[in-house]
Structure formats: C-alpha cells, structure tokens
Amino acid sequence: MKRTIVKTAGAPAPLGPYSQGVLVEGGRTLYIAGQLPIDPQTGSLVGDGDIRIQTERVLDNIGAILQEAGMGFNDLVKIGIFLANFDDFGDVNEIYGRRFTDSPPARTTVQTANFPMGFLIEIDAIAAA
Q1: What is the DSSP string of 34-70?
Q2: Could you give the number of structural domains in the chain?
Q3: Buried-most residue among 79, 82, 100, 102 (CB within 10 A)?
Q4: What is the CATH number of the domain that holds 112?
Q5: Domain range for 68
C-alpha cells in the first residue's frame, strides 16, 4: 500500500496535527465506527466530565481495533472528531497529536448538538494498509 500525504498551498494549511489529504493506492481499508469513552472491560463511561481522560480512552479503543486488524495509528487516513463542546478542542488536539509522530491523517472536527450519558467526545476513523 502506498500512502502519500497531499499538501498544497492552494488550500489552507492545517491548524493542528492533521494532513490536508491522504492519497492511498492499493492495500486494505478498515472503517472504524465512532468510538466513545467507554472502558471495554466494564462497559462504563470513563472520565465523567474530563475531556482529557475521555479522549485518551477513545484513542485507546481505536488503537485496539487497529491492532486487531493488524494495523496501527500510522495507517489512519481519515479521522472524524465529534465534540460536545468546541472549547475542548485544544485539550483534544494536544492528546490526539501525541498519537501521530509523522504524517497525520486528514481530519474533521465538529461540535455536536447533544451526546447521551455524559459523553464529551466521539471519534470515527478510516485506515488503509
């Protein structure tokens, strides 16, 4: 699989750890459903009211799915981040950025109207390897 980061001056530069685009040629594709800050062992919400703890849990859940598929964070090509409060963007961006050492995936971040059960964040993803 060939993965090439697309970067152009013809579009705005990324405002954080993400790429404008990722071109993937060949390989396998994994679509990861939206992951919530739920501990897979207990089935319970983690970090009630704490966006940093919830973000780490969501990324850990994504990491487990990637690992099961024989992939890793560097195989991610597109991420969607859904926040209950856009004021949490800075904290989420900092934690998210630690997972990508080089060539982060393309990304969208939006604020949602309402999450149930105290969820502050949800992330879905697409990986290609």
Answers
A1: EE-SB-TTT--B-STT-HHHHHHHHHHHHHHHHHHTT
A2: 1
A3: 79
A4: 3.30.1330.40
A5: 2-128
